[in-house]
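Ticket #4471: structure export looks truncated?
Reporter: QA, pipeline team
Priority: medium

Steps to reproduce: submit the single chain below to the structure queue and open the exported record.
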Amino acid sequence: MKTSLFLNRRQFLMTTAASSLLLGAGRVAAAEPIKTAGIYTVPVEQQWVSRIHNAALTAQDRGDISYSFSENVSNTDYARVIREYAEAGNKLIIGEVFGAEQEAREVAAEYPDVAFLMGSSFKEDSALPNFAVFDNYIQDASYLSGIIAGSMTETGNIGMVGGFPIPEVNRLMHAFMAGAREMNPDITFQVSFIGSWFDPPKAKETAFAMIENGADVLYAERFGVSDAAKEKGILAIGNVIDTQPEYPDTVVASAIWHFEPTLDKAIAEVQAGSFAAADYGIYSFMNQGGTSLAPLGTFDGKVPAPALDLVKQREADIKSGEFTVTINDDEPTSS
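Actual output as written to the record:
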């Protein structure tokens, strides 16, 4: 009996120890949240940055990353802030380096163990393997929103207000214009850039001038444009985010950017230890889930049926690969 009890107790202890080792191994094997930092030159409420910020918060909520961020960082301070986050142990740094390309890449080279995923007008460089780029290639949804705009204008005059004439803005405007011309090839466009990513008053004043010049639909690439449309009782098309809840009688449709596919791909690569220099722009395409046309909401039933039929057909063809929206990064001009 004593021998039996001794063996059972020893077996119990050995089993307990083995279980503890297995549990411990499980804890070690479980992926720890990736320490991640976001660096933004504008407030996180701004359209473009808000999509990155929200995707990061979603990833944090599901436990993939631990996230901190800095907003309103000037281009002259950008490199310094990158270095501070890298020194603080962040393993993934996201943001936008459009105005600080060279400085950002130089700092990234100093921290080869840190993965950088940055909005950029330039391409990846194999000589800098830890620096990947992205851009919001949402020309697919912009094209569809243009079809709707082209069906809603009565004057055939559309105003377009952008921030800067850089590729990411230019391609969206060209796609929008191509969509509008599907409904009316004779539509004319007023195109203007305000020289700022966040100056609603200036965007609003520019939009007012376009309305005075006959525009009855505005393409709101920047905040402030929809305010002008609302005050003057005309229509607007949104960009990147859905602002119809704030402008229910003004914003007909919006091309929405979903940053989640882009960020999720980067997180997976960091977790696998395979992050490399690459162009993540493709993850903004409609067939990757990176962009969509916002629901019509309050304008449901108010958009002409032929336009909706064309939108439905083109969307299906874009997703299947049968139709490709042209990517034109040249600066658009008024017609």
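Status: closed, not a bug. The export was complete when the record was re-opened. Leaving a note from the reviewer for reference: The CA atoms of residues 252 and 299 lie 6 Å apart.
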